[in-house]
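Recall the central idea of this unit: under ordinary conditions, the amino acid sequence of a chain determines the structure it adopts. In this exercise we apply that idea directly, starting from the sequence alone.
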Amino acid sequence: MKARYASVSAALLLALSLVTPATAQTTAANPDRWEEAMQAFDADAPTRPAGAIVLTGSSSFARWRTMEADLAPLTVVPRGFGGSKMSDVLQHIDRLVLPYKPRAVAIYEGDNDSFGGMEPETVAGELKQIITKIHAALPDTRIYVLSVKPSLARVSVWDRAQATSALYQDIVDSDSRLHYIDVAAPFLKSDGTVMDDVFVDDGLHLNDKGNAIWAAAIKAVLMPIEAQYESTNDE
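Accordingly, the structure predicted from this sequence is:
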């Protein structure tokens, strides 16, 4: 039964979700700035099943407390670490993804990259390297790439974020093992502006309504493909 797999502790989730972009900038010169988070994941790894779906990326995953319930009956492994960038996932892919031998991986990065001034081509290039590393070890693993979502706090870099997402789509279109999840459109009003009732006070992170929209957009893409493989996790 899936219930036998322990969840990441609430304390671990809180610690990972509270890592801010400012913290990441402060420790940018330290290549081991995520070591504590990686060690927490390493310790939790034995409780996780092989053949599940790993979700890794920045705070939109790390702060998603109800991920496992929202994506049920899919078996997922939460591996979000708040404040991270695409380069961080690339650096730690051997610990974030490969140990779980997942049937699928979902990646959410690009938000902090865009806000930090990273060029879309650089972020897309790092995504390509991640995909190459995953498929070198796990050639049949499906990879779901999420678009960058909009937010009230980062309207000033929305053009850069959209350019990054467009490059993600180009990458996904090149390989049938890759899939794109649009998590931008569900947060835009009919006039193209960002919804103003889906964020907490910082205008960046999602509130309960925002998380419900976020979860629905992701599950709508995952379920038609991944539900058929769930029986292998219940054996």
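The first strand starts at residue 53 and ends at 57.
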